Amino acid sequence: VQLVESGGGLVQPGGSLRLSCEASGFTFSTVGMNWYRQVPGQERERVAYISRSGGTTTYADSVKGRFTISRDNAKGTVYLQMNSLKPEDTAVYYCNIFGTNYWGQGTQVTVSS
User: Fold this and answer.
1) pLDDT tens profile 13-37
2) CB-side neighbour CA atoms (13 Å) of 35
3) Cα-flanking dihedrals φ and ψ of residue 87, to 5°?
4) How far are the Cα atoms of 22, 29, 36 from residue 5, in angstroms, in the given order?
């Protein structure tokens, strides 16, 4: 199993980023997927979940209305579109297979002027 995140970077407040997580080594279309984030010294926080088909999504209150999770089962990829970014969104973002301890290496998102 391999999960590889990309798309992080430095962005100004109010800006947008799109994170990607490319999955391999398992049947992607049979699992739900999560995006988490973590700030040093704090617990990892789940920000979004998407079901196997993509028909169900859930979001943390802190990102609802600003972030959108989606997936392309043909490409084995899950995305996190992040709009109206705030400094408090600064964190390392990880993708995770729902219900498992499989994680990617993370991608840093920094929101700063």
Assistant:
1) 999 999 999 999 999 999 999 999 9
2) 33
3) -55, -30
4) 7, 18, 11
